Amino acid sequence: MPVMTVIESPVPAEESTGPPDPKRTRRVLVVDDTQNNLDLLEALLTAEGYEVLTARDGLSALAAIAKWPPDVVLLDVMMPGMNGYEVCRWIKGNEATILTPVVMITSLNSLEDKLQAIEVGADDFLTKPFNKYELKARLRALTRMKQYVDDLERAETVVCILARTVEAKDPYTEGHCERLSNYSEALGRRAGMNRDEIRALRLGGVLHDLGKIAIPDSILLKPGRLTAEEWVIMRTHPEVGERICLPMKSLKLVLPIIRHHHERWDGTGYPDGLRGQEIPFTARILQTVDIYDALTTKRPYKPPLPKQEAFRIMREEAARGWWDSELVELFAAIILAKDKGGLKEG
Description:
Blueprint: E1 6-7, E2 27-31, H1 35-47, E3 51-55, H2 58-67, E4 72-76, H3 84-93, E5 102-106, H4 111-119, E6 124-127, E7 130-131, H5 132-169, H6 176-190, H7 195-207, H8 217-220, H9 228-234, H10 237-245, H11 255-260, H12 281-296, H13 307-319, H14 325-338
Parallel strand pairs: 1-7, 2-3, 2-4, 4-5, 5-6
């Protein structure tokens, strides 16, 4: 590979050359099979306050990403073995790294090369020789965006911890959220949901009862039947959960699951009395697996039911107009397939 060169051109006086985030050193992974290129970029970025990791090939880059997740990847294209396009495709195809910015740096400059970089998910493209001030400006923009994404993920984590705190109050619901996430994902995939909807279903499995954090323990953990007044309070939890998550744009697709998983097909559910296909499809998926889990796990007032008995009850209730009968049958098929080595329970 040719040795990288850097164009030195005047930087505008108002440009800041310091690190993009004074609160935390941002980490950049530089991937190139030529040592001189690695040395050049490492010296340039270290002087700007970045923590720099280097890798000489694609497999080493993936190992580094798994061990030390970077804020940005600067990726050469032409490398022996696993080339830059393949590395980028792996990064953008992995749920844990899909939001990691990738900048392709290469001597290739044809339209086809740039289109291929875009197709594999690259966030930016620089052609050698590059202007170092342009590189630094793009890095600052990408690291700021990565910091914003990380902040959203941390907020999601806090909310999920709160939801699991609610689950932990009742020993009879241990593992409930994890099972619902797994069941919802399996049913969503079988129903043809896309990747964003599958992610919403997994989060919905954790967050659907978040609003119960506002329900007094005297009601939430009451072993006997609730009074009419207590039911009024209990039925506020979908709206409370929605309000908690509403400010987080990253949970937009989860909000309908949280709010509507207690609606019924015939319109007798809550909080909005939606009926039939007015109920969001993802909420109906969560609702279906939630009912199954409630029937097949031990509760203070009943033993766990066998799978076949649980589905018999669900079919009766669907015929009564409570649930989406098609989803009940689809989920029954998945659970029966599990007995032959399919779905694993959480």
